[in-house]
Design a protein that fits this description.
With 62 residues, the chain is mainly α. The chain has a domain of 42 residues. It is built from 1 helix and no strands. The chain is elongated. The two termini are 16 Å apart.
Length: 62
């Protein structure tokens, strides 16, 4: 699996300086399972309610 985030800036009035900020609240992935949008939303809401800011269960990463 690959997750890629990108921004497309088209027809914006740049004045020589470029600045942007991208915020991603959560990326949710369950290996080997199809997860409905509602189930993913509920899982992420549970993490947020518990104050969990980061969980990495992918082998060999982080």
């Amino acid at each position: 699996m690959s997750v890629n985030f990108s921004n497309w800036f088209i027809d914006l009035p740049f004045t020589g300086e470029r600045s942007w900020e991208m915020k991603v609240d959560w990326v949710y992935f369950r290996s080997g399972q199809a997860v409905s949008p509602d189930d993913a939303t509920k899982a992420v809401a549970g993490f947020a309610a518990a104050g969990t800011r980061h969980v990495n269960t992918l082998a060999g990463s982080d």
